Amino acid sequence: LVQIFIKHICGWTEEGPKKGLFGKPAAYYGTVEEQGRKTLHLHFLLWISGQLPLNTIRERLMSEDSEFQKELTEYIESCFMGEFMTGSKEEVSARVPFIPEFEDRGIHTILVDDSNVPEGYQDPTLTMPEAPPSEFCEEPEMCRCQNCLDLLSWWERFKMTVDDILIRSNGCINKQGVCTARFPREIIMNTSVDPKTGHMSIKKREATINDVCPTVSLTNRCNTDTQCLLSGTSVKAIVGYVTDYITKGWLKTHQVFSAAYDTFNK
Ligand SMILES: [Zn+2]
Ligand SMILES: [Zn+2]
What we know:
2 domains; two-stranded antiparallel ribbon; binds zinc ion; alpha+beta; Helitron_helicase-like; Helitron helicase-like domain-containing protein; 6 strands
């Protein structure tokens, strides 16, 4: 699964780096962690080629270069979103059918009431992603050919499925009803830049979900989190955090530094 992710989502192929979901990759670094309950999950850093040094980005944001700011905002907002695709959390919750889990107790199994689950509905965290039609025209929105109509209906299902996965997987309330993931977060209606510091506040319209890349959610069909690291401090913090997973317990200090050194040289 990780190799498929690296090749098809990130664009790191056998023939070298190709344009992936976030651009052409320059380097990547990731580790798989095992949680206490034995589930595996991936922490992954991706460097994009053509990326300006972070201090240059900051300077250009502070110089109020509006074209640069516009293009950077468009790029970042194309990488992830902090809201649902088809409506508010309340609307998505109301739409997504809830199938109660049942315990198999043989003849004593309690019958599950699934009368409000639409015929043919499947929980998307238990199914494979649906590929878009392979052929369509230049401007599918304008066209009425069968391929373009299929594409547009695929896109509607894409958005509904992403929201369904988000509402099921990106929750945060534990059994005691307490939020475990720093929610609610601050709502930011539009991306903006503070010209005094060059700090960018990125659009975030839903306080109770983390930021996600819709295509990553759709293809992985589980809880995901996507962030754009725009400061040296956050890059170093994440490198440290990710490195920690491969250095827990048995590695000596010089090996920890060597792993971090190799990462910065990549
Ligand atoms: Zn067409
Ligand atoms: Zn929470």
